[in-house]
Amino acid sequence: MDPHHEEARRKVARERKKRQRENETPAAKEKRQKTDSASKKQARASTGDHNDITSQEFKNRESVYQQMCQDAGVHYIVPTTGGTNLELKAHTKTRRGDMTRQCNLFNDVNCAKFKAVEADYGKRCADAGVPYIAPDLEMCAAEERQRDTTNRRAAMTRSLTQYNTIDDPDFEDEESKFREACSQCCVDYSSPVPVAGNEGQELKAITKRWRAAMSLKINEPPP
Question: Residue 84 phi/psi, 5° resolution?
Fold first, then answer.
């Protein structure tokens, strides 16, 4: 075949393919991208030294990383196999290294930014009358695991943002039980403490705190 003719034919084919991609629907584009991604994964999985993910040795080692990720509260990264039972050793090494780093990330509690955020949480908790949860440090360390920081602050945020509606029938029913029990046991009843600027609601953390205190006194053995 004439080289010039062949080049012209290829150019026409490239232009036609380009127009097809420009005019394809979003669904068709997404499908094509998924197909291309799968093909690339398959190609990557077919070159270099591999680990057999079905071998007992590989499974045992992966179980260690699965448990490590579970304990640390981070996402476990599954092997990259391209639809086969093989994973490139380079991918295994990179994947396991990423999981190890994720599980060992720490916050410096002496960092100015960390202290500022903690001070804000402390003030908000004090203003709302809910307990502040201090950093979880081990053996007087100066670092806290990032997952522990996240979980701790999430718990405080829940305490600061979840409410009980004081005039709700279920809430009032529980309160009436506490009033009656306090009266029978000669214990001071603690009335609901409305949120500042919202007389109809009480923080769930406050409700839980006062009810626990009343229950403790109610259940005290007689002198």
Answer: -115, -175
pLDDT at 44: 54
> Contact 201/194 with Cβ under 8 angstroms?
yes
Choose among 53, 50, 75: nearest CA to 62. Answer: 53
In terms of C-beta density within 10 A (0-12 exposed, 13-18 middle, 19 or more buried), how is residue 65 classed?
A: middle
Q: 167 near 202, Cβ under 8 Å?
A: no
**Please, what are the averages of pLDDT over each run of 10 residues along the chain (223 residues)?**
72 80 79 74 62 92 87 83 88 90 83 90 88 80 82 89 89 90 89 83 87 88 74
Beta carbons of 161 and 128 less than 8 angstroms apart: no
Amino acid at 144: E
Kind and range of the H or E run holding 2: none
State how far the Cα of 105 lies from the Cα of 75, in Å rounded to an integer.
13
Do the Cβ atoms of 76 and 69 come closer than 8 Å?
Answer: yes
CB atoms within 10 A of CB 18: 10
pLDDT at 93: 92
- What are the beta bridge partners of residue 144? 107
DSSP 55: S
- What pLDDT, on the 0 to 100 scale, is given for residue 43? 56
| Tokens 């903690």 found at | 118
3-class DSSP state of 191: coil
Q: Read off the pTM.
A: 0.49
